[in-house]
Specification:
Helix content is about 40%, strand content about 25%. The protein has about 180 residues and is of the alpha+beta class. The strands form two sheets. It has a five-stranded antiparallel sheet. Strands 1-2-3 form a three-stranded antiparallel sheet, with no helix packed on it. A hairpin with a 5-residue loop joins strand 4 and strand 5. The longest helix has 24 residues. It starts with 5 loop residues before the first helix and ends with a strand. The C terminus is likely disordered.
Length: about 180
């Protein structure tokens, strides 16, 4: 039996990485301020590590995908698998040509993964859709901030988060509406 409401536990779980990063950075800062010998140098490295963990945790916490959506998303072996009663599919990360966020008719958002001649649409609220954040960080030039904004307020037109450039070169581009 928990003394905290389920909503409070979900909030703590969402911001867990931020809290851990802050604690690690503060421990490193303490070593910098009161350590002797090599401890301030080690504390500086720990503080830097905590700051990186805090920043990535902050971005991950802002990457809100909702819950209760249709289907389940799994990311494994550089492959996105979407299991659903109707319309599931697989997208290899290396075969992706474009990643977009598209508004659904119900007011939510969908991830749209385009490959050569094929397309996989995944509800942002599907179980496990938070793993898409890890996919985006693996794509050079992906616009994480644009994805966060598009998920928080689904766009009227599709928003391109990442596109593979000509001749297989990944090129960052301005925010595009396709």
């Amino acid at each position: 039996m928990s003394f905290l409401r389920p909503e409070a536990l979900n909030g703590l779980a969402r911001w867990r990485d931020v809290l851990i990063g802050a604690a690690v950075a503060l421990a490193g800062l303490r070593w910098v301020l009161v350590g002797v010998g090599l401890m301030p140098w080690i504390g500086g490295a720990v503080m830097l590590l905590g700051a990186v963990f805090l920043w990535t945790g902050f971005q991950r916490a802002r990457f809100r995908t909702g819950s209760g959506g249709l289907g389940v998303v799994e990311v494994d072996e550089r492959q996105i698998t979407y299991l659903a009663p109707v319309g599931g599919g697989i997208a290899a990360i290396d075969a992706l040509t474009q990643v977009s966020v598209v508004a659904s008719r119900a007011g939510g958002a969908f991830w749209r993964f385009d490959m050569a001649g094929e397309r996989l649409s995944v509800p942002a609220a599907a179980e496990g859709a938070r793993a898409v954040f890890d996919v985006l960080t693996a794509l050079p030039g992906a616009r994480i901030e644009t994805a966060i904004r598009a998920l928080n307020q689904p766009p009227e037109t599709p928003v391109t988060i990442w596109r593979k450039g000509p001749a297989g070169v990944d090129t960052p581009r301005a925010i595009e509406h396709s």
